[in-house]
Amino acid sequence: MQTWVPVFIVIACVAIIFQTIMILAMFIAIRRMGQRAEKIADELQGRITPILSRVQALVDDAQPKISSIMADATDITRTARSQVQRVDRVMVEAVDRLRLQLIHADQILTGALETVEETGAQIRRTVWGPVRSVSALVRGIQVGLEFFRNRRVPQDGAEQPDESLFI
User: Model's pTM, two decimal places?
Assistant: First the structure.
């Protein structure tokens, strides 16, 4: 058994040396990758920095313009609101005036129609009443004259007016 102990010690040493080599290789690989990543980050930062500075310059230039646009939009909105309120007031006043004018016109037309109706009734009473009376009198005289004319003695071949009515 004593011979086996040195063998196990040698195997353990070889394993430790192998693990050390592996760890060293991993360290070197990670270090290279870190250097590459750092190089890529530096390169990316070198490219992004001018873009960011341009964007910052654009934002700095646009900031007053955007503020001005927002202020103008606020003024336009305020002005539009006041104009709409004015138009609303004018329209309400116009509708009220129109309604009052329509009521006034309706009253005038109603009064005129009542006056025309009264006048027509009065004309019928004052003018048509006597005209009817005179017309009835004239008709009565005509009927009376016809009656007297028809009472004359009929001639030989003439029929009596009443007899012609019977069949």
Answer: 0.39
At 67-81, the pLDDT tens digits run 888 999 999 999 999
Residue 36 pLDDT exceeds 90: yes
What residue segments make up the domains of the chain, in order of their start? 9-122
**In the predicted model, what is the mean pLDDT of the chain?**
86
Structural tokens at position 42: 């530096």
Sign of CA dihedral 71, 73, 78, 79: positive
- Both tokens of 29, joined, read 């690989």
